[in-house]
Amino acid sequence: MADLGTRLGEIVGAEHVSSGDAVAEDYTHDETLTAEPARPAHVVRPADAEQVAAILALAAETGTPVTARGSGTGLSGAAVPRADGVLVSFERMNRVLEIDTENHVAVVQPGVTLAELEERTKAEGLVYPVYPGELSSSLGGNVGTNAGGMRAVKYGVTRHHVLGLQAVLPTGEVIRTGGRYVKASTGYDLTQLIVGSEGTLALVTEAVLKLQPRMSHQATVLAPFPDLATVARAVPRVVGSGIGPLILEYIDALTMGAITHTAQLQLGVPDEIRDTAQAYLVVMLENNATERLDQDVEAVGTLLGELGSLDTYVLPGPAARKLIDAREKAFFTAKGAGADDIIDTVLPRAALPEFFSAVMEIAQGNQTLVVGCGHAGDGNVHLAVFQKDPEVRHKVLHELFATGMRLGGAISGEHGIGHEKKRHFLELEDPNKVALMRRIKQAFDPTGILNPGVLFD
Amino acid sequence: MADLGTRLGEIVGAEHVSSGDAVAEDYTHDETLTAEPARPAHVVRPADAEQVAAILALAAETGTPVTARGSGTGLSGAAVPRADGVLVSFERMNRVLEIDTENHVAVVQPGVTLAELEERTKAEGLVYPVYPGELSSSLGGNVGTNAGGMRAVKYGVTRHHVLGLQAVLPTGEVIRTGGRYVKASTGYDLTQLIVGSEGTLALVTEAVLKLQPRMSHQATVLAPFPDLATVARAVPRVVGSGIGPLILEYIDALTMGAITHTAQLQLGVPDEIRDTAQAYLVVMLENNATERLDQDVEAVGTLLGELGSLDTYVLPGPAARKLIDAREKAFFTAKGAGADDIIDTVLPRAALPEFFSAVMEIAQGNQTLVVGCGHAGDGNVHLAVFQKDPEVRHKVLHELFATGMRLGGAISGEHGIGHEKKRHFLELEDPNKVALMRRIKQAFDPTGILNPGVLFD
Ligand SMILES: Cc1cc2nc3c(=O)[nH]c(=O)nc-3n(C[C@H](O)[C@H](O)[C@H](O)COP(=O)(O)OP(=O)(O)OC[C@H]3O[C@@H](n4cnc5c(N)ncnc54)[C@H](O)[C@@H]3O)c2cc1C
Ligand SMILES: Cc1cc2nc3c(=O)[nH]c(=O)nc-3n(C[C@H](O)[C@H](O)[C@H](O)COP(=O)(O)OP(=O)(O)OC[C@H]3O[C@@H](n4cnc5c(N)ncnc54)[C@H](O)[C@@H]3O)c2cc1C
To answer: Is B166 within a domain?
Structure first.
């Protein structure tokens, strides 16, 4: 019997398999700060669903672990391969198959990046509104993690835009789920089950995505606040106003200082306000009619003033774009500053004030620096944790997650569990639910070849 | 060992169990036209999740089939019990536990009706926007069928508003899924898997529902069209315009005649237009600002004219409400007129013209009358089928469903599969998907006690 690399080459062509030392460094990790890189035995780059099916059949036959990889920008370690396994990289399956302007749908292969999809939809006056900061990420990866991002407060997350999938089961069958419609009651919703499953249930080979009409005008309001608690209390009010912001981000003063410094960005906030501001809200609005947009900007400004902002600034277009861009890169700023881990707990948004005060206590109680920003409109808090000692760090994370869950939240809003948050997940989640999830995993993947070690031990 | 009825009485109190002939007729059916009624051995009315868990543990122990029932308004026969089984009626679990105005969430027991929830949210300036025509239906039933309705074109369906559940597994554990947040990437999405599972995976004992700010003003535009094809072609244009209609319904001329006649409703359409109109679009818009609403009404009127409508009428409030009400009751009008079955195929909305012409051919080819209306914005077509011969009717339905699926659709958009569409589902659906769904069913319900005969044989 030929060795595994040879047999993979028979499926995809030898030039699309790398093995051993020929595996490039980039395939050994994602962007997670804590994950140990691992060089897979083979990297294989299939061209279509049939090849993916053949790879999975071979893996099942040989009991080989298989990890899917999109762009490797994930923050949970879920695309880090196993040293004894195969990494399936979707880089060659990178075509936008269709922009269907009648049904407002894009059909894409998993390797398509958000940047590419943005360009293709823009040309048609449509938009795929899900906007996780990293536009080099792939749609397959976005489906894998149920990616969120800044616009979720208006449009929802990946889950809400995936109408259907073509997927290969670890048992080798190619199925199609859902379709170019927004609803069905025809059996179990396999689409939604696969979204967010971090490559543990099936490999996605095509996605049908819901598009929206693209709005023509945007405006951005920046509001400094005296403290985080006031910001947190303002969030439900802004959402409840009915104005429907496109973006509603909070950024604490330390993070704002760091990201504007890194981006060399002047926002026109006078020194005396910047010196008192402990946190900021960034509210972006959109509309097709400039008149309506202006009215909404006015209304948001007034509302924020009532809710305790120190002042409000309507940012000029270029400054607004730079700020959003700098916010997207907050992760790299934190990384550059030496952050040891990043978490993205999600909470009921009204629980933010209590969460923030608990965060402060946990940080102080453990001599740890915890700073952050986040998708406040969704109650999704991104915290950078500066603590070199892994045991203390684990304790801090555990306390943060436990607090979030006690307040009705979940460990991760959008980054996922992967390897890196698994210990917390298994420690804190209801064992009955974990057991049920394991049985579901078993229903898809009886031989356990897909991303072993992710989510479960 | 005491008999089952006695043991159920020990769990919920004897006064909350009915057995044998004491079971009221209403429990033997739902609203499905074709389903054979069945009198269950026992009806049990639990008061809380613990009692539900005890009932399921007893059923698992004794191998007794269990069917959940909300208000029994379903249209797939999925709440019709088994003669040898227990019907769990949620009528006593009918409390709105909380309207959380900060997080825009309602927490309800499954027996709460839409009518009750509407009243409670209205008082807070919020709305649960999912609007299946039957307001006496329960939230538990809505979750069971993934109910849709007229406002799905703007707000989505039940699935998009269920943020979390408390559910009892057939293995007896009580779990909580999701929470008061719109997104998470923390393990598999059990909430979405249970939604639409027609009582086959778990019994829902609490639901966390997303609410929206309630808009203050609505306006309704009625547009007669010369034929169904023109209506069908107009639908994607209206959706694509970015105006964001709240309701976008089509009603064919026969159905319009019947429902306005039944409701004794005058719409002010002159005779000469009514005589040529073969179909109608009903477009409802909403806004908080009357000025914006007026502009949008104007824009929609112009657009519909361009798209081929014979004229457009802005309906006065009372007439609009009556028309929507009559549309909701279209099912009963069809039933009264002797319809033999109702289906609700969903399609990519751009496939509507082709589907409508196929429907006409199938109807004529089988000497069957097929008329309808539907949630055109979602591509969800409700057809009343008049054909007494069950074999011919099965053939007609089979051809309609097969055509819908060939055009990229699914058998049911919102009513579900139940018993009544099961033969079609099993004949037409990919067997690999059905097999996977069975394995998922097995993962939840290893002893097969929950709603046996629904979805699968
Ligand atoms: C600077 C920065 C900012 C970010 N901001 C955000 C943000 O705002 N919101 C957010 O949600 N995320 C954010 N992320 C995280 C990351 O971009 C997302 O998790 C993204 O979805 C990962 O996509 P990817 O293609 O890089 O996936 P990868 O990292 O390659 O993989 C992610 C997961 O998906 C699986 N997968 C990949 N392809 C497939 C497939 N075809 N079939 C099945 N499974 C597959 C992998 O196995 C893995 O489990 C950010 C990351 C960075 C570096
Ligand atoms: C006139 C009329 C108009 C209608 N219009 C629409 C429409 O526009 N859109 C639409 O979607 N539907 C419509 N329907 C169908 C119906 O109203 C919906 O299917 C509704 O969701 C059923 O709710 P119910 O409480 O009556 O559920 P039931 O009929 O009692 O049950 C429906 C399903 O849910 C399950 N179930 C009930 N409670 C629970 C629970 N607690 N846990 C788990 N499973 C449970 C049952 O087992 C069954 O499978 C209409 C019906 C009528 C009669």
So the answer is: yes
